[in-house]
C-alpha cells in the first residue's frame, strides 16, 4: 500500500487550506528492504542517523536502513522526556541531516523532537502498530512531569514493514487498537464543540477518522488470527490519524476526553497517586470506555435544563490542592483562557437534543468492551492502575489537563451530584 499524502493537501470544501508535511507512506510486508528506493524517489538525501530502541534494533537486524550513525537506546524505563531527548541530542553528530526513527511511538517522539531542535529532516520506520503519532507534527512528551505537546517535525516518509509489525509483541497492536478506538469519543467531542460554540469542523477530516476507526474495529478478528491484512489495516488507520492531524493543524480529530484521562494518569497528580502499567493506547482505550459510559448516562436525560448552572472558572487553589505544586502552575496557565467560558447555559440547553444524537451514534460500551476483551487488551480501571473509587475524581479533573472543549469538560456546568443522586434513586426503583 502506497499513500500519496499530497492528495490530502490544498483547498478544502470546509473553507481551509490543508497543509501536509508528510509526502508519502508505504505500508507493505518487507518494504524496509526497499528503503533506499523510496528515499531516492522522494529525494531525501544527506548524512543519516538511525535511532533505535534495543528491541527494534534486534527485530530489524536483517533490514537496518543504511545510516552513517546509529544510536540504540535502552528500552527499560525509556520515556519521551527531557532526559531521553538530552541524551540523543548529546550523541547526535553535528553534521547529521536526516534522523530515521526505527521503533516504537516513544522512539518516534524523541526523534521528531530532536529533528526539530536540530532543524533536520525526519523519516519514520514504525516497528509496532501501537500509536497514531507516527505522522504527528508535534511530540507528546512528559516534560518535567507535565504531559504536553511540543513542537516537532513530521516525517517526510513513513516506511511501515508489516513483516516486522505483525511479529511485534501483542501488547503493541492492542495499544494501537485502543488508540484508534479513542477516535469515536474524540470525534463526538469535536461535533459537540461545533454545536456549542461553532468550533470549526472539517467533514473530510472527520470522515477520514471515522472510516479509519470503523476499519480497525472490523479488523479485530483478523488481528486475533494473525492476518497480515489486519495488521496493515491497523497501521494504515494509525498513519491516517496522523495525516488527519496534519490536515487540521492540531490533534482535535484524534484526541478528546479519553486522551485527557490517559494524560492525567501519566502525569501523576499529587492527590491521585497511581501506577500506570499500561501503554498510551491501552489507557486511551480504557478512557474511551469510561467516556462512552458517562456520555451515554448523561444522554438519558431528555431535558438537561434543570441540571445546568452558570459557567464558573476553576479556582487556582483547586489546581494546587489536587494536582500539587509540581503541576499546578502549568495547569493554571493552560486553563487561563478557559474554552468552557464560551458556552452559555442557553447554548447547552438549546443544543442538548443535538448532543444526545451525537452520543446516540457512538458505539455501545458493550461492543467496545467486547473487542478489547477478544484481543486480551486492558479494559478496566484496575488494569491501568486506577481504583474504581478514583473514577469520580478522574472524570472531574482529567478535562483540566488540556484546554479543549469536550462534553466531559462541559460537565462542570451540570449538577453532577444531583444527577448521580437521581440516577441512584431510579436504579433502586427499577429493582
Tell me what the structure shows.
The protein is of the alpha/beta class. It contains 18 helices and eleven strands. The chain has helices at residues 35-41, 54-59, 82-91, 105-118, 162-165, 170-197, 203-225, 228-248, 257-267, 280-299, 316-323, 325-334, 345-350, 352-360, 365-375, 391-397, 407-410, 416-430, and strands spanning 2-4, 10-11, 17-18, 24-28, 48-53, 69-73, 98-103, 121-126, 138-143, 146-151, 157-161. Strands 1-4-11-8-7-5-6 form a seven-stranded mixed beta sheet, with helices on both faces. It has a two-stranded antiparallel sheet with strand order 2-3. It has a two-stranded antiparallel sheet with strand order 9-10. A hairpin with a 2-residue loop joins strand 9 (138-143) and strand 10. Helix 6 (170-197) packs across helix 10, helix 6 packs antiparallel against helix 14 (352-360) and helix 9 (257-267) crosses helix 10. The longest helix has 28 residues, at 170-197. It starts with a strand and ends with a helix. The model has no long low-confidence stretch (mean pLDDT 94).
Amino acid at each position: 500500500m502506497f499513500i500519496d499524502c499530497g492528495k490530502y493537501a490544498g483547498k478544502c470544501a470546509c473553507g481551509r487550506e490543508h497543509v501536509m508535511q508528510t509526502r508519502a507512506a508505504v505500508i507493505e510486508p518487507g518494504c524496509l528492504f526497499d528503503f533506499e528506493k523510496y528515499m531516492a524517489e522522494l529525494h531525501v538525501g544527506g548524512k543519516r542517523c538511525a535511532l533505535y530502541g534495543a528491541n527494534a534494533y534486534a527485530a530489524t537486524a536483517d533490514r537496518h536502513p543504511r545510516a552513517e550513525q546509529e544510536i540504540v537506546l535502552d528500552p527499560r524505563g525509556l520515556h519521551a522526556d527531557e532526559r531521553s531527548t538530552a541524551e540523543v541530542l548529546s550523541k547526535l553528530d553535528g553534521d547529521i541531516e536526516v534522523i530515521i526513527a526505527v521503533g516504537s511511538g516513544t522512539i518516534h517522539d524523541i526523534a521528531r523532537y530532536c529533528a526539530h531542535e536540530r532543524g533536520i529532516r525526519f523519516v519514520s520506520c514504525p516497528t509496532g502498530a501501537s500509536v497514531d503519532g507516527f505522522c504527528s507534527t508535534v511530540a507528546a512528551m512528559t516534560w518535567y512531569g507535565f504531559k504536553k505537546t511540543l513542537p516537532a517535525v513530521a516525517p517526510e516518509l513513513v516506511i511501515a514493514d508489516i513483516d516486522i509489525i505483525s511479529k511485534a509483541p501483542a501488547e503493541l497492536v492492542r495499544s494501537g487498537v485502543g488508540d484508534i478506538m479513542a477516535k469515536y469519543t474524540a470525534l463526538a467531542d469535536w461535533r459537540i464543540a461545533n454545536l456549542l460554540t461553532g468550533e470549526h469542523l472539517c467533514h473530510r477530516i472527520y470522515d477520514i477518522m471515522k472510516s479509519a476507526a470503523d476499519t480497525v474495529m472490523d479488523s479485530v478478528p483478523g488481528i486475533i488470527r494473525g492476518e497480515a491484512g489486519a495488521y496493515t489495516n491497523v497501521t494504515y488507520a494509525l498513519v491516517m490519524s496522523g495525516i488527519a492531524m496534519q490536515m487540521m493543524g492540531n490533534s482535535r480529530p484524534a484526541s478528546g476526553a479519553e486522551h485527557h484521562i490517559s494524560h492525567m494518569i501519566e502525569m501523576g497528580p499529587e492527590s491521585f497517586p497511581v501506577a500506570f502499567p499500561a501503554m498510551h493506547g491501552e489507557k486511551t482505550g480504557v478512557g474511551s470506555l469510561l467516556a462512552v459510559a458517562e456520555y451515554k448516562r448523561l444522554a438519558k436525560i431528555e431535558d438537561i435544563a434543570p441540571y445546568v448552572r452558570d459557567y464558573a472558572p476553576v479556582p487556582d487553589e483547586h489546581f494546587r490542592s489536587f494536582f500539587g505544586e509540581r503541576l499546578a502552575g502549568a495547569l493554571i496557565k493552560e486553563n487561563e483562557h478557559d474554552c468552557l467560558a464560551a458556552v452559555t447555559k442557553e447554548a447547552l440547553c438549546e443544543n442538548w437534543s443535538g448532543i444526545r444524537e451525537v452520543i446516540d451514534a457512538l458505539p455501545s460500551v458493550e461492543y467496545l468492551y467486547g473487542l478489547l476483551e477478544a484481543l486480551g487488551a486492558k479494559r478496566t480501571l484496575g488494569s491501568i492502575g486506577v481504583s474504581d473509587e478514583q473514577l469520580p475524581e478522574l472524570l472531574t479533573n482529567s478535562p483540566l489537563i488540556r484546554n479543549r472543549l469536550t462534553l466531559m469538560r462541559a460537565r462542570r456546568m451540570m449538577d453532577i451530584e444531583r444527577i448521580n443522586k437521581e440516577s441512584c434513586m431510579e436504579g433502586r426503583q427499577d429493582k
